[in-house]
Amino acid sequence: MKQLFQKKRSAAALLLGGALAISALGAQAATGGTASPTATPSSGAPSSPLATAPSASANPALALLDAIDSAQRYSSISYTGAMEITQGSRVLKKQYTAYARGSDHVLLEFTNPEDRGVRMLRLGASIWMYFPSEGDTIRISGSLMRQGLMGSNLSYEEVAEGESLRASYSAEIIREEMLDGRPCAVLKLTSSKTDISYPTRVLWVDASRKVPLKIELYARSGILMKTIYVRDLQPISGRLLPITIEIVDALKKNSKTLFSMRDIKLDLDLADNLFTMQALTR
Amino acid sequence: MRIPTARRRAFGLTALLWAAPLLWVVPMLCAVPPLAAQAASGVFTSATTVSCGVAAPGVPARLGADEQLDLGGSARFGSLRFSALISTSVSAGLGAAARWASYNESQTLRWSWPGWSAASSGGGSGSGGSVAAPDLLAALEVKELAAALSGEIAGLGVGFKAELGKFPLKWGVGKAFRPSDIFRTMDYSALIPQAGGTPAARVSAYPSALSRVEAVAAIDGQGAIAAGARYLSSLGDFGAFAASAGWRRASSGSDEFSASLEGQLDVGSFSSYAEISARHSASTTCLYTMLGSGVALGSLTLYAEGQGAVGLSTSDLRLFSLATWALSDLTSISIPLFWFNDARTLSGGMLAQLEGLLGGRLSLTATGALFCASSPPTAVWSLGASWARSLSTY
After folding, report:
1. Rounded-to-integer distance, Cα B203 and Cα B212, Å
2. CA proximity to B323, closest of B298, B345, B304, B347
3. What share of chain B is helix, strand, coil (3-state, %, to 5)?
4. What is the DSSP letter of A154?
5. Which long-range contacts (CB under 8 A, 24 or more apart) does B65-70 make?
6. Which terminus of chain B has a smaller tally of CB atoms within 10 A, N or C?
7. pTM of the model
8. Residue A80 sits at the chain B interface (C-beta within 8 Å)
9. What phi and psi values does residue B21 have, to the nearest 5 degrees?
10. CA–CA gap between residue A239 and residue A241 (Å, rounded)
């Protein structure tokens, strides 16, 4: 686990891996420099996803992950986020401000009336919460990690995942199909690791724009746990980013969370002391 | 119809209490322009509760109601931050009895009509004492009123924070029992214990990203004074620990010195935590220990916790368990249970929370206590429904 602090994490992993919706939460930014020239947003004429994958790689699936990575690389991000948790006819809305640097420095501050002042700090795989009503900092520990972040469909465990998909999974393209009018390559990622949240992931990747549009997460038993849909993409500072993401819990009836981002700023100079216990309790 | 004088006074006081938050808002808003607040926000919330049950053994069951209005807010002026939370309430019947029973002598900046004091209630702590609870109770409490200054110690690159006022203060890692908490701010009248605010001064320094050193001095409503220092640090991805030492002078004038260790460690899916606190007063030295563990089994989260003492005439054994079942993202059921061995008392209940209902949160509660020390054992119980929502924000 320690090496997570040093491990560089791809943007593909940000978008596809771990929390998936993390980029919607704004929770994670890729380590690395500025955008690759290939990252220019393109509405691109539909073409074969396989044809757009770099041919240099022996495995076109991994090459596709790399392409997504380079297309969406940024060093830091800040934005205003909103989550809309829906359970049947009941809807709970929350707002927050997010700052992230590298792959493992994240600070969220909730701003909706019910949770105003509640903050979350993630450093590597370590998550701390601050609740102003009790003036208490709480380290989110093993048993709490599987609970949803502030009641959402995104667990703390998923928020804390920092390892790149490239490092944890083997990948193969299992078919090509249309999704929302876009030709997509369907990638199946599998992992033999025992400490991983989802041993199997299936991704629908719009290869011409180098963005995933849908991801399915499976348990070791093969049961579908969650499905993530990218509902909106916007060009931000030369990169095409998913700004609205929906997580649908397959195990809970009529349960989903919509994450959306606005006022996005990339590659900011975020101070070190923003990601400290002092900032958490300020 | 002629309204009794006592009722008229109660209604008048109620109107005054509900208007009290405005007296706080106006100066706060007036203070903003000259200081040019960089960020100011507030929220006005309401919680309406209806209940029924038996508040004391042998008393017939009755109904109750409670309306609570909270006004909270904060304003930041550069590195200076002000925060406040004022709560007003009007309770009747069982609602008044429940609130009366929650009062204790350590609370500060709280006024009620009729008035409550430890002396008039026979000195009972947390029980409302021997004075019967009123049928109608109005209260005003300043739960938080504090100023905080944050910055960096020049030349050292170490962050600091200085706070003064009444604010939440919580030492320890236990869910219910915190022997290392020398400030004794835990409120056990709630179904699930929570820390309350206390008048205090605190200075904190942050030597690293996930560590904090703090020195605190606090006073409670009974005149007890406590002061201490604590160091809290993360243990990487595996846990956290804290060490503290402090002094507490009770209102009677007796001094107590303590030294404590707290730890939290992840072992697989289990999260274990413990506290050990050595306390020395003029005639005795005793050792308090608390051990707890939590585990998540699907949507079910379980905690179990126990506290005991060595060196006292009693074991002071206390047990606590908490089971929380997340039925969905917006609905959960919690079942807390307490066992106080010396008092031979079992207490607990059930709390169902439904978020996002009519723009607020609906809480359904069932609470009860069984007093096994009496013969025959006696019991109290209550059922309640509470709906809390934000009325406005600014």
Report:
1. 10
2. B304
3. 10, 60, 30
4. S
5. B65/B91, B65/B92, B65/B93, B65/B95, B66/B90, B66/B91, B66/B92, B66/B95, B66/B96, B66/B98, B66/B99, B66/B386, B67/B91, B69/B18, B69/B21, B69/B44, B69/B45, B69/B391, B70/B44, B70/B45, B70/B46, B70/B143
6. N
7. 0.80
8. no
9. -55, -30
10. 6
CB-CB neighbors (< 8 A) of B210 in chain A: 123, 126, 128, 276-277
Domains of chain B: which residue ranges? Answer: 35-55+62-147
Q: Cβ of A1 under 8 Å from any chain B Cβ? A: yes
The sign one gets for the Cα dihedral A159, A163, A165, A170 is negative
Output DSSP code: residue B220.
-
Count CB pairs under 8 A between chains A and B: 145
R_g of chain A computed on alpha carbons:
18
Nearest to B330 among A126, A141, A151 (CB): A151
Residue A108: which residues within 8 A CB-CB, separation 6 or more? A25, A26, A27, A81, A96, A97, A98, A99, A119, A120
Residue type, B123: G
How far apart (Å, rounded) are the C-alpha atoms in residues B191 and B350? Answer: 8
Q: Cα B247–B253–B254 angle (5° rounding)? A: 55
Q: Which two tokens stand for residue A166?
A: 């490239």
Cα–Cα distance measured from residue A259 to residue A261, given in angstroms and rounded to the nearest whole number? 7
Mean pLDDT of the region B207-229: 92
Q: Distance between CA B228 and CA B243 in Å, rounded?
A: 11
**Interval A75-114: pLDDT, tens:** 888 999 999 999 888 888 999 999 998 878 889 999 888 8
Which tokens go with A4? 């997570």
E-strand stretches of A150-238: 170-179, 182-190, 200-206, 211-218, 224-236
Amino acid at B294: G
Residue of A nearest to B355 (CA): A92
CA nearest neighbour of A5 among A123, A88, A176, A139: A123
Average pLDDT estimate for B128-151: 86
- The three-class DSSP label of residue B351 is strand
Q: Is B8 left (phi over 0), alpha (psi -120 to 50) or beta?
A: alpha
What's the distance, CA A29 to chain centroid? 9
Structure tokens at B321: 């368990």
Res B112 pLDDT > 50: yes
Separation of alpha carbons A18 and A31, rounded Å: 15
Q: What angle do CA B191, A147, A196 make, to 5 degrees?
A: 155
Residue of B144, B299, B328, B361 to mutate for A, most A C-beta atoms under 10 A: B328
Q: Model ipTM?
A: 0.80
Judge if the upstream peptide bond of residue A41 is cis by omega within 30 degrees of 0: no
Identify the CA nearest to B386 among candidates B351, B348, B335, B337: B351
CA dihedral B348, B349, B351, B352 (to 10 degrees): 150
What residues contact residue A118 under an 8 Å CB cut-off, 6+ apart? A109, A110, A129, A130, A131, A132, A150
pLDDT digits (tens, 9 = 90+) for B57-110: 888 889 999 999 998 888 888 889 999 999 999 999 999 988 988 888 788 899
Q: Which two tokens stand for residue A44?
A: 């691109």
Task: Single out the residue of A177, A178, A109, A73 nearest to residue B74, CA to CA.
Answer: A109
Instruction: Give the minimum alpha-carbon distance from A7 to chain B in angstroms, rounded to a whole number.
Output: 15
CA distances from B212 to A176, A278, B122, B336, B347 (A): 53, 8, 41, 31, 36
